[in-house]
Amino acid sequence: MRNLALIDKKSASCSFLKGCCAATVERNCMYFANQNELCKLDVDQKNAEDNVEILGPLDVGTVLDLKYLPEEDVLAIVAKMGSVSVYSLNSSEFDVVGDVSDGISACCWSPDMETLVIISETGNVLMMSRTWDVLQEVPLFQQDFGEAKFVSVGWGSKETQFHGSEGKDARSKKKIECTLADWDDKQTRIVWRADGLFFAINAVEPSMGHRLIRVFNREGFLQSTSEPVNQLEQSLSWRSSGASGLITSSVSLVQQGKQQMAFFEKNGLRHGEFDISVGHQVLESYWNGDSTILAVLIRFDQENYGLQLWTMANYHWYMKHFSPFEKGIRPLWITWDVIETNRLHVITSNGTYLMMDYQSVVTSSKGLTSSDPACIAVVDNCKLKITFLREAIVPPPMCGWEIEFSTSIHSLDLMSSDSTRLCVLTQNGQLHFFQLTNCEQGEKSCHPDIKIICKEGGRFQPIWDYTASLDLPDYVELHHFRLLNASTIVASSMNKLVVLNIGDSIITIKDSITVDFRIGGLESLREKGDTVLIHLIDGKILELHTNDMILSDSIVFPEFCYRLESINGHVIGLAASGRLYVDGKEILSAISSFVIHSDFLVVTSLQKHRLLCLPLAHISNSNLAITERAIERGAKLVHAVASETTVVLQMPRGNLEAIHPRALSLNIMKSLIDGKSFAAAFDLMKKQRINLNLLYDHNPSAFLEHCSQFVEQVSCVDVANLNLFLGELQNEDFTTTMYQNHYEEKSVPKDGEKVDRICNKLREVMFESDSQQYLLPVVTSYIKQGMVDAALKRVQVLAEESLKDQALKYMAVLVDGDQLYKEALATYDLQLTLMVAHRSQKDPKEYLAFLNELKAMADENERRFTIDNSLKRYDSAVRHLCRCRPIRTEQITSYMRLHRVYVSVIDELCNVLPMSEVKEALQAAACLQAEILVSRENHEEAGYLYQRVGLYNLAVDSFKQCGLWENCLSIASFVQMSDVDTKSLVTILVTRLRSLKKHKDAAHLAEYNLKDYQLTGQCLIDGLFFSEAWALAYRHSMDNWAETTLKNELEGALQMMEGKLEQVGNDCSKYTQRLSVVRQDLLYKRDHPPTETDHGDLYSETGSSIFTHTTGTSGKTFRSSKNRRKQERKKLRLKEGSPFEDMAIINELHVLYSSMSSVLQDVGRLLRGDLLISKDWSRAKCFQSKAELLVKKMEDKKKDIWNFSLIHKNQENDKNFGPSATTEMIISQVNQEKEEFFSTRYLELDPKLRSPPDSPDASWKLDSLK
């Protein structure tokens, strides 16, 4: 699908080149030898004649070969007379290093320039080293086949094989008559294989008079001889690609009226061929460095010479380019460049040196809308193969349409602004214009020299428009033809740009300009039909307006780009180095090809062989969002069909592959959804396997708003599409998960009710439209929500049995048969249950007897109880059991004990009147449920439950246990408890409240209910409420108690608190110091890991091996919550030397810091009591100061304890330890590494332990004591 385009052409002319015998090119310098002199020419100089440097005279006759040896800096010269000499470029002296007395007929250097092969006139093969030592000398014309001679194993001979139509006469071996071609020059040719292990010689066999090809190895031993081929010609080259490459020559088949390029394997056997034009004499053939282009030198009409360039794809040979020479001018020397594989060097007999650079390009339409036919034009000699990729992907060498011309094609182009216009320039100077239209349009008339043949064509076809002659004598020299618009064509020749005007029958020059450097490419702008970009070889881009011929500078690229595209005001270029540029700025490297899609720049990368899609809207941004997918190694882009998802790639062999990149598919899908084309979007997503959730996730509000359109469009083709959509729904926003790279700008919270919302909305729409038409989607929506019972109820109300049957069959596919049977049974509709059972895989013996038993029951509640019990729905079953009449107390009691469904029994029986009928069962259920609550230490709820069923004594006991004295006293009042019992209850409550440390509540009961003020004061003292105790003493005239007991208790409390504060400070210091030591030890172990032989303490004291030790614990995952809690407790044990000691210390410190708030509140109460009772302000001030000092000390230690922050593992940190790093930078980075180490380690901690507790408030302090 590619053509060869002449990118660059350079020429130099001088009279010294007219008699050139041999030459070699090194960079921009060419050394050549004619009959008399050895010369040097700088091909970049403008005036070549004046810049030729004569290195010295030559008197060796005709020079066969001239090579530059860089290590010695000499020129090696091999002459036909037999001399081998070198010319030193340093000393400018000749030196003869060898001589073949019989003369030399041919010679060739190996690819590594280490071995020289010489064929003498007497038929000897002479091999010389780079130091001019003779390595081997063997005769050329040997009778033996060679070392690779075929071995017969006694079967499969010619005589025993099947001969088909040839018959028995084919059993006898026929002698092949071989002759030479009439134009054969009878000269010997030598060629090396690219790896330098073998070389081949094409020479005329003296005894037979025809040519044979012999293959020798690097040591000079004959390997094989080619089979006899009649009219085998003189050309010889060796293709380097493939396992061993193929030897290339030519064969003249005069009797059959054709000429062939033939291929031979290393063993001498024929291996394919291809035909060339009849009447062309093949003189030489040359493979380029990577064997992608075969150059064939031909002669026709006796004095005319030409150069054909052939390529191969999918086992078909295409003649891509033909360069004829002027009449009477013949090429003297042709070679491909060693470094630039697509560069060809030619010297002609008129003294002209030509350097031509070729590049493989795709000629395609450039439209970016759906009207573009996606046309690909492929040149094949006189034929133009056209394929419209929008309608079919036709693999080469096949095509959709074929246009055949009378002469070979020179150039062609498709108009950028109108992709339906095609122009083709042929070698006879005719410019043909075609219109690419639908088959129903246009006339079928055609030019007499043109044939348009339909091959695999369809809707689109090329129609001939008109033909005009090119009124230019040297039009062959023009290249880079670009059809700008219907009236203008631009082309170039080296540094000259020509603007051509298209007339009715003739094309004339409108204007021309000359630029400073050679033109390497022309690119027409899509947006402007009169503007062309001129890309110079030095990377500079100029912009030319052809209407007024104004030339202006545009952009400068760092290097020349052989492929340019202009889109949305940006210029995109791809250089031979693989660098991709946008407006002169490199954005990607290792790129092999690119194409422009409507919304994306699609490129192929050689790194991991990927296809990359870059959005055109952000092509100039530095942070470019790129999506990628893997492709086959060596694949290159051919075309991306505009406004579609198809991208066509050509594989290295030549076959085509159409893919649909996810970025393109999603982009088209978005546009379809935004345009409310839900049916087209749904079809695209099904084909490309895009998750259907995106229909909603792309724009949830718009989807819900246009839900009716969605249902109508999607169900128009098939209602089952709605089932497919509903079945794929998930409570997940796929724009933030699976497709987040394509929705980077979207950020929405997680929607946990997405499925329910969509199902409810779709059901609403379907009910409004036609509930029977959308029966199955409605059922699907219910099942998707897990509402199988609702789906069955929907089926239950259907009137037509056929619809019921259809719905139940469908449900049997979606839901497990047993589950569906149970759900049907739960509807209590026995007829529906029977229909479901018939469609399941259940044996009738499993359900018929049970259903008949149910049908025979008279009591509906009993039937439902039996159904619920069989389904293990014990709550519902016991409710129906409670509704059975008469009340079955014993059965209810035993059933609720068996299945522990006490709450349901209580709820159901509490509504039964009169209560006396069910009191026994009700109180039994309440007691059983209360026992469960008490076992969970939930005495409060147990008390409420006892109160509900009238068990007041038990309710009081439960409230006493949890300290709810108000509830106890209210029940005592309700049941009219006696004063003695009430006082006893209060005494018990005071004791219980004191044990629960509810000192204020206990003091309240002692003061107001028991009138025991001594007990009241003791309760307040226990809670450190000295201010309230002081008020109590003066309220009840307890002066003696206040002066003795209260003051003594205050003194004791202050001493106790001072000791507690001191203990807290000591514990904080101890834990902090130990934590620092443990952390230092962990860092040391991280930086000095144990060696492989250092098992450390993995061995137990009894000497058991580490394998025994680890085997016992390997595989444990601690899945149960009990084991998990046990393992967590192990981690938090304060055992010195344990692997989690630092985490245990952090846990203890967290508890210590968390308890400081309550400690400080106690300190505050003591301060206020001290000031009120003892009035010792100095002591109070000292006490507060100690507490403040401890708080400050602990706050300072927080930054050392919690000195880590949780950092995501994928966060990248720049590290710089080079010469430019300062001491501060290194210390900072080391500390950062430590912090990252502990951040990762402490991810195992409970989240609340990862951060320090909040600092206590200052409400406990008194400002007057500062």
Structural description of this entry:
It contains 32 helices and 56 strands. It has 1266 residues and is α+β, with helices and mostly antiparallel strands. Among the domains are: 138 residues, Methylamine Dehydrogenase, Chain H; 104 residues, Lipocalin (Beta Barrel). The strands form 13 sheets. The chain has an 8-stranded mixed beta sheet, with no helix packed on it. Helix 6 runs parallel beside helix 8, helix 8 runs parallel beside helix 10 and helix 26 packs antiparallel against helix 29. The two termini are 92 Å apart. 35% of the residues are buried. About 3% of the residues have low confidence.
Summarize the structure.
The chain is of the alpha+beta class and 1266 residues long. Among the domains are: 143-149 and 195-325, 7 Propeller (Methylamine Dehydrogenase, Chain H); 557-660, Lipocalin.
Assign a percent range to the helix content: 25-40%
CA distance, first residue to last residue = 92 Å
CATH topology title of the domain at 143-149 and 195-325 = Methylamine Dehydrogenase, Chain H
- SS-based class: alpha+beta
Over the alpha carbons, how many angstroms does the gyration radius reach? 49 Å
Low-confidence stretches: 1093-1118, 1206-1220
Major pleated sheet? 8 strands, mixed
CATH architecture designation of the domain at 143-149 and 195-325? 7 Propeller
Give me the number of helical elements: 32
The fourth-level CATH homologous superfamily of the domain at 143-149 and 195-325 is YVTN repeat-like/Quinoprotein amine dehydrogenase
Beta-strand share of residues? 25-35%
Tell me, rounded to a whole number, the average pLDDT.
86
* β-strand number: 56
From the spread of the alpha carbons, the general shape counts as elongated
What is the CATH class of the domain at 143-149 and 195-325?
Mainly Beta
Widest sheet, order of strands: 33-34-35-37-41-40-39-38
Biased composition (Polar residues): 1101-1118
Domain ELP1 TPR: 863-1029
Biased composition (Basic and acidic residues): 1086-1098
Pathway: tRNA modification; 5-methoxycarbonylmethyl-2-thiouridine-tRNA biosynthesis
